[in-house]
Amino acid sequence: MKEHKQYSVGIYCRLSKDDIGNGDSSSILSQKAMLEKYVHDNEWTIFDYYVDDGYSGTNFNRPDFQRMIDDIEADKINMVIVKDLSRLGRNYILAGQYTEIYFPDRGV
According to CATH, what is the number of the domain 8-105? Predict the structure, then answer.
């Protein structure tokens, strides 16, 4: 029997004022519901929700994003999930640095 890896998941949701016209699929509630189902379906544990509502994705100086980084540094979470990469950030170079360098270096 295959051993099931335990994940302590940080669910990150973001909606900027510019995203509001995109409809319900981008809403914070919609993002949370989709991601909660994904975590539940995989039998992982949600550690916390990190929500930056009304913040631009062009930089990473967002309150809950920074709180999530603090929790990664404190080894409280070992997985971050988002609806899509644009929720993490709109600066794809910096987002790539997080997904390709920062997260893997910390086992996330």
Answer: 3.40.50.1390
